[in-house]
Amino acid sequence: MFQISKYHLVFIPLLGFLLICAWLRPVWYDDAGHFLVIREGLESGRFCHPTDPALDICNSDSPYITLGSPLNHVYALWMALFGKGMGTARTLTIFFSCLVFWTIFDLVRYTFSTQKAFWTILLLIGNIQILSYGSQVLGEMPMMAGVLSGVNFLIRWRKSERWYWGVLAVGAWIWAVFCKAYVVLPLIIALGAWILISVIRRDPKLKNVFIYSFLWGLSLTAGLVIEQGGWAGFQSFIQDRGSYSNEFFAFDFTESLRFLALKPLFWLGSLAILLRIYFQRRAEDIFLGCIQLGFLLFFLCSAGYDRFGFLLLFIPAIFFSEFCLSMWKRSQRKRIHLAGFILGFILLFGQQTPLILARDWPGRFAIEEEWREKWETPGIEEMESFFTYDQHYAYMTKQNFRLPAVVPSNRLNCVKLSLRPGEWLAAGPFALTEFQHCIPWEELELVFSIENERYPVSFYRSIKTDD
């Protein structure tokens, strides 16, 4: 029976950090894009991307729709119950993040010990990517809740042979793919590696591995076909998501290796995984290693975004927790050793998180004040702004706006903006980098800029005439 212990207190600072990040961390284009699709679904019943609300143009096939239909509906229901704001949506993400950590805690408690589960959480809660993406309107944390729950259920199925654990595992991994479809790639790699190793080791439970893989693949395909309204819709769905191929298959290792090089938890935890598998050879450890391998290969082949990279920290934390627990016990002998351990732990696994949050604190209020002041400027009341998804969405209080239809990852295929005479353009960092060639700068005049250090934006007015 479940019992609350002192080790569960680690969830209190975790929840506090997530709430702080939900309040402080800026809105960015995926965050805003998902929110707008969900809000549109809540208000009109259509889960589409509102490129031009004034003309009721809403694209249901937009590449901005990267959350699966079930997850969009869950967010819409949450916002219907508790409010339509960005803060409400982010609160639900925090719930999913807590579910991820709870699943990890339960998994480690089951396969190792409660003390190691405690240290696993401690290793993760200081990471700024986990805290940031774990408090924004993104699909990664709901996805990881499904992935790790499936792992947890599969390990229990293997040990107990009770069929309902296998059924729950199939459902959990289907949920994961419906949250973010790209996760199917690392999961297929993981299952392939697991099957290969099971064959080499002549695992007596190899049959279960094949049964699970078959049931998951069949159920997932059927679910996606049903969701897309038939086989033709499913094929169209796959083709529409082809615009992300240069994110998933960039094969440029510069960014991915740079990210990993700055993550001691990844290197130390990966070494712990290898040592554990080499000396113990437990099936559970090998399976967790296969999951890590799937995500690692996927990340190395991708464009190296930290939104993919932070997913590589969860399983290493599970295995490195054993070393942390051992070092903690040894450091109790002398205060100097204890102080050194605590300081080293914070520096290695907290990294820049306190500095980043401290930097966000004044900017959080400064940008709101600057936008409020500018919105009161004469002439802006009738502004239509065609803006790219930067952090500025949270401060757009006007409702008469148009949005880009092409995501930055597919910017080379964008159609040049056709701004109406007198229309305004709110140009943030993406407009000056990713979308620069998509904007007719010769038809624009700069009106004013908000020179905020972290959230700069410039406002232009179209000077072209009707002819």
Tell me the series of helices and strands, N- to C-terminal.
HHEEHHHHHHHHHHHHHHHHHEEEEE
* Overall 3D shape: globular
Instruction: Give the beta-strand count.
Output: 7
Strand content: 5-15%
Description:
This protein is mostly helical and about 475 residues long. The protein has helices spanning about 10-25, 30-45, 70-80, 85-110, 115-125, 130-135, 140-160, 165-180, 185-200, 205-225, 230-240, 245-250, 255-260, 265-280, 285-300, 305-310, 315-330, 335-350, 355-375; strands at about 50, 55-60, 385, 400, 425, 445-450, 455-460. Helix 2 crosses helix 3. The model has no long low-confidence stretch (mean pLDDT about 85).
Quick summary of this structure?
By secondary structure, this protein is mainly alpha-helical. It contains 19 helices and seven strands.
